[in-house]
Amino acid sequence: MLSKIFKKTNLLILFCILLLAFFGLGKASAVSQLVSINTSDINEVGKETLEILLALKSLKLDDSLFDEIVFSSLVDFSIELGEKEKGRENPFEDFVFEEEAVTLNE
Predict the structure, then answer these.
(1) What burial class does residue 90 get, using C-beta atoms within 10 Å of its C-beta: 0-12 exposed, 13-18 middle, 19+ buried?
(2) pTM assigned to the model
(3) Confidence class of residue 91 from pLDDT cuts 50, 70 and 90?
(4) How far apart are CA 65 and CA 72, in angstroms?
(5) Nearest 5°: phi and psi at 35?
């Protein structure tokens, strides 16, 4: 009698495992179909990016502008900025006001 109960529970457990495995794999394949990536699109984007980088590499800048008299006659009007007080450590933290005791001199 006891062996029949064990056989039935073992079969029930095996059946549950098979159901979970079947539905689990079915969901995984459905998700993989939704998330599938077309590698030809990635290769096309990679080729475009590579072409742009190669075009940038072949650029030559004309630096004769820096040798002209007009450029050398420019005056620098920049000013030196002093040290500024640093802000709060955490700018998103709530403000905490410390209460100061006010004493009146009588």
Answers:
(1) exposed
(2) 0.27
(3) confident
(4) 10
(5) -100, 10
